[in-house]
Design brief:
The chain has 256 residues and is α+β, with helices and mostly antiparallel strands. The protein has a domain at 39-65 and 105-254. Helices cover 51% and strands 17% of the residues. The longest helix is centred in the middle third of the chain and has 28 residues, at 152-179.
Length: 256
């Protein structure tokens, strides 16, 4: 048997044999399915980026020795958040003041809060992003603990960038779900608040201590005085800026 002719057509459409009309083309560009950010959600979020940046202030305080004071003061669309955080040269953090007020969120019942959070956490994209955020945060804490490992600073920076990008995508996705009607106004606002709190208030110092105990055989790669400049301070500033952005976005969602 000989094959005399083969006709091959390559385009961005494919035919689905299970379709009632198999000849009907179906859009398919060959890219795998995965986490994708919606353009509408990203555009919505970017409108509030400058508000978050203006709410954050860093100032060196000269008392007995240098202390970096980080102040976050956000008052936007009925939401008020104030945080004053001090970091010393050893990386020890002290919360001087912290307050949060948002009438719409506080008026939700426990049943409404539980339902909103359960709905949000059941979404596949949210689960994937939460996994990436957890993994990158753990990696950053690990390399910050064992700073003498080869390429530790580079790997810490890569983990920090990954965490920041995944956290931003999480905010974009929540805004997208609200805009396309998958989440209601209150559900999106409350769930974004809970997710944002998890992003910022994760205890990095506790994670660092835990890594030091679990991986005790790597203690030779630790230094007596941690290089706090590229660990706690950098990660704290990133987390706080992302947290402020999430608060501004949820305030806008709640007022929409």
């Amino acid at each position: 048997m000989r094959i005399h002719d083969i006709n091959v057509v390559a385009d961005v459409n494919r035919h689905d044999p299970s379709n009632p009309d198999p000849s009907e083309p179906e859009a398919f560009d060959g890219s795998p399915e995965g986490v994708a950010e919606g353009t509408a959600g990203k555009s919505f979020v970017m409108d509030f980026q400058s508000i978050a940046e203006q709410a954050l202030m860093l100032q060196w305080m000269m008392v007995w020795w240098p202390i970096l004071r980080i102040t976050a003061n956000l008052a936007f669309l009925g939401l008020t958040f104030l945080l004053t955080l001090d970091i010393d040269l050893l990386g020890s953090m002290t919360v001087q003041s912290c307050s949060f007020l948002h009438t719409a969120l506080e008026s939700m019942t426990e049943e409404e809060q539980d339902r909103a959070l359960a709905l949000t956490l059941s979404l596949t994209t949210i689960q994937q992003l939460e996994l990436v955020i957890l993994a990158s945060s753990s990696a950053a804490s690990f390399f910050a603990t064992f700073q003498l490992l080869p390429q530790a600073k580079l790997l810490f920076t890569a983990a920090l960038i990954t965490w920041t990008l995944a956290s931003m995508m999480l905010i974009y996705t929540m805004a997208e779900y609200f805009l396309n009607g998958m989440l209601s106004q209150n559900d999106a606002a409350f769930s974004l608040f809970v997710l944002a709190v998890g992003l910022f208030f994760a205890d990095l110092q506790l994670a660092t201590q835990a890594f030091g105990r679990v991986f005790g055989f790597l203690n030779k790669y630790r230094i007596s005085v941690p290089d706090w400049g590229y660990h706690d301070t950098a990660f704290t500033a990133c987390r706080l800026l992302v947290f402020l952005l999430a608060l501004a976005v949820l305030a806008a969602i709640a007022c929409s």
